[in-house]
């Protein structure tokens, strides 16, 4: 693939450069020397002001692929959590994991891990403060000024190392004058979302803002075998911010944010019965004959084992930002944060009402982070150097009950029906980074960035015996494997570690992983005319190694994987095409992906245990992609946008692994899971004034994603079909925006779709997207 990829990249790069150069020549010939007027609408994204490079710039001035969306736009299209950003971000994918842990990938770079301590390939921040674990990101998407999604390896300007990209939420700040607002949203299934804020000065130096939000109701899932419903939301979040001007050149900003989540865990849909041990089919006759879920988004099934299948999760984060302007050109920025998460949730993992697979997850995650940056900003150059330190700790205990499965009889000495996963991890990361940018000429700018990171992981893990019958079964089985001359010193008891090493000795697995990396970025951009830019980036990013968090019978299931890296090449351009009403932007990118981290089956020791789940590294892969966007305002009030993304991902090296059916296969030549080849987004919005005090708008959004898969092996049961979603919105603003009333329809055509497929034990299950919903939202500002 490499020769074809590089040739294609060169051709596309030339095309991207040519259309910008052509416009630049036209602009030079026909435009006066004064700057061209900006488009009249913020809907045309080039006028959005972003801080992706740690200073305020128009989006048209940023030499990288970035999606920036205003808070008003996010509210209009219904973005209420990070997963909803797929509605507005080309190349972003988000899947439901079934474990309450969202999983993101950007341009095909992702890591599907559902543990509390999952360290994503796409870093998420709130006002540059890191949220190191995906499960911590649930409470970010409200009361926002905007969100910026940076694509490609990151880490030389601020924050953490990442291979896929970064998502930075910028919250609304305290205001210089009193402001307040309330919003009430009522939608299908009696879901009620309410939000409010109050903001203003306490005195000349101190300003404060408090924002709160609640999301309740909406039990949208129905059992298709009995009279029961599920899927209710019980989610509350809040954020308090205080800005203090200590002196004319020194200010502080304190933020305290958090959420409480008692929502139901999404129930899944039974898509096939795929027995783990077909020879034991006689043990599960009800499962073999269980009806598959109909193609209806609301249809699902579950067994609560006598407990509600819901979350009881709490999170808070405190952050302090200090800005000290040493001179007109030099400043010091300090970011200090502490985050704490407590998680407790229960889930059914077989998609039936039978007592097949039930889990209870409990855990904690804490994070302390400190970053200090020295920033220089001059007429023709700017630079930043910084130090960062993070100490992240997680614990996780998962209780698995599998009484009605063929796996329960997998051990010949008796039933194996209940066990616990018990894991502790301590991540410590230290980094030094810097970036230098300079205007080489009036039209040519170059920059270079470096980041050296030392990442240290200490971990301890094992699976533990969950009940006495499992203890008896494993004691007898291990004694057979050890032989009559070397029995276990004592029978296993409930709570003992059951994970064994190659000598069939049970015990806790401990270890460490110490790695360093040097990430870098080189950029060159050319701006021959106003609002015209052609840029090229070469960068290398890393994601640190990871310790598996999974039920383990064998010790080497818990062997850590080494860090992954992405060497990225990108050429892009932005330019007006026709006057001020049509803008175009595009990028071509090529990623050389080494040691991609992947959850998969692996052969374990002792060999008699076969191939069991673990985490492995895919030696070499490649991603070739292109993005193109048109923004138009052909007449006053009418805004149009069209975005197309094409991604071709491929495992390029020999990579032998096991499919979900434990069949050995070589995955060379296969595309990445959760990476649709084509994505298309189209938006249209028309607004007009009815009279001096009343304005209105109507809008539609269309999202298309081509088919993909949930795993390697080319198995049809893991297919994720293509789908198209159409949303409509319309509303009125009254009294200069003091009142706003909006009606909306999500998934207008009631498209049945799913974004994930999972197989555990004997069943394969889908996670369906929301059906058609209607709603009305009323807002009042003061």
Automatic annotation (TrEMBL):
Keywords: Cell outer membrane, Ion transport, Iron, Iron transport, Membrane, Receptor, Signal, TonB box, Transmembrane, Transmembrane beta strand, Transport. It is found in: Cell outer membrane. The keyword Transit peptide does not apply. One of its GO terms (biological process) is iron ion transport. It comes from the Bacteria. It is a multi-pass membrane protein. InterPro entries: Beta-barrel_TonB, Beta-barrel_TonB_sf, Plug_dom, TonB-dep_rcpt-like. SUPFAM superfamilies: Porins (SSF56935). Its main location: membrane. Residues 302-748 form the TonB-dependent receptor-like beta-barrel domain. Residues 59-166 form the TonB-dependent receptor plug domain. One of its GO terms (cellular component) is cell outer membrane. The keyword Membrane applies. Residues 1-24 form the signal peptide. Belongs to the TonB-dependent receptor family. This is TonB-dependent receptor.
